[in-house]
Model the fold of this input.
Amino acid sequence: MTTLTGRGVAPGTAVGRAVVAVREARQVRYRLAANGVERERQRLRTARERTRLELEEISSRISRTVGPAQAAIFAAQLLMLDDPLLTKRADELIRTERLNADWALERAIDELHQVFAREGDAWLRDRVGDFADVGGRLQGNVRPGRDPLVELIQELEPPLIIVADELPPSVAAQLDWSRVRGLVCAVGSPTHHTVILARSLGVPAVVGLGSATQVLMPGQMLAIDGTTGEVVVDPSDDAMDRWRRRGEIAEAALRGLDELRTRPAMTADGVRIRLEANLEMAEEVARVRDAGAEGIGLYRSEFLLDAHPESASEDAQLETYRTLLEAMRPLPVTIRTFDTGEERRVSPARSSGHRQRFGLRGIRAALQNDQRFRTQIRALLRAADAGSLRILLPFVTTSEELRQARALIAEIGRDLGANPVPVGAMIEVPAAALTVDHLAAYADFFSVGTNDLIQYTFAVDRTEERRAGPYEPGAPAVLRLLRSIALQGRRARVDLSVCGEMAGDPMMVALLVGLGFRSFSMTPAAIPILKRALAALDSQEAAVMARRARQAHTADMARAIVEPLAAAMHRAALTDPVS
Amino acid sequence: MTSRQVRVVNVLGLHARAAARFVKLASQFQSQIKVTRGERTMDGKSILGLLLLSAARGTDLGISADGPDEAEAVEALCALAARGFEES
Done:
């Protein structure tokens, strides 16, 4: 049994057998049951015949149009097709190792590539092109014209866990998710459209496991936790027990949901805590209400830019915002303006994790390229009467930027004759975090984006596979910065909320409450669990603990200080609510 | 089993087209056919195997056959190699 840790992006636990898909799910790998061997051998033979016909056709065409000497190259490819080292080897792998045809071919081709590469002879390396060509054609003919993963999921015995290097949303959308228990991806982020889909379907997902498709073998039993990001390979009985218990936590959260939904979140000593939801896609709004959120604390509007260029037109935006506001009315909806630079890539499959780190981003881009910003503000202000809207400006660094943005919003509002709406600032850049008191002059509320704040504080990119430095939410530098933000916010009497991933983690919430925060926005699924967990937290105790944690020299020490409180919260999350 | 030595004489050596001709001819015989260069032995009916021998001009190859038509096979294949696989 080994445990790998990625990033949990869709909560819940799952146990199932691995199905591996690589190259944007064009290649699939799984282990055959004994009775599946003949079908795969037949599939390989069919692919071979199909490839043969194609090559013969190409060869005769080239022979006619170019000349027989050039056609001879395809004669060589035809021989490769029947070569014992290629198709016979693949057939052997199907029989002896029970690989599916696609995987067997991939292995046979890889073996040949390795031999060719090892020979190290330039003359020979030139020959690689020929067999790579025929090999690729053969692979393409195993499941011609179909999405192999879509077909495969139909054929295999559930429970299944998909392990992919990248799972494009276009493939994900066609899958029969009732047969899939979980998803593990090498790349991706909480905002990748495939992940959003998994989350809205209640399928646990872990991303950022760079080596997933190499390390996790098809057919292996996996236990995954989409909250902690753990992936246990060949889980022991003990681990299976643990997983069952975690599953019970999730179920417990669901059991009392109706009762919990209407009950406000409160600490053991009666301090009211406000819990709102982060919304990734407008379509997910029903889940937000089901989870008992007190509003939408963060809607990342840049998704509108991903989907379709037309969906960013003023009228299309107006429609989206209005629908959202109506669905949540009378609860507040905080919409963050586009947090992108101008050169954002358009393909939704690719735009996943890597937004531009610095440069012309967020409010900076908004003020420079003010046409797009103006369009968005117009749409927002026109939609405002449909519910309770709050506009959130991202990537704010100085109060001067905020002043300019507000002036622009006020001007647009006057032109439209619209009622003013609250405008707030994201606190995600250390410069802003240190001058919350100045920003407060121009902000009706603040939202602390812990993910970016931690990155910029440590000068690391958390999405990089090999991080050059620490990214530690519990580190003293982060705790001190957060404490300062909380104090400044309280003195300025400006509404302050934490959105980032820290807000969804009970241990971190214990710390944040101790630091003085009273309002959080998180993934909807975490809300019911957190409501129960908070009932076991004493805010005074949390404050004492947070003070000690701020003095700790390492994140590990800080964690050890918080641990007892977090454990109590965890236990509370398990029990049924008091009826 | 019958075996013989032959030298690669054509300019390009045992490249794809030459190897293709060899495999086509070898496949017409029932016998099992092996081609050896130094320590390495490959299936004479495998074009990829032959390519892996990386036999440039001047290389000595051993051709052996085992089966009912082994003598004819070795004779024909050595003759093909000696003719430079029908190339210059």
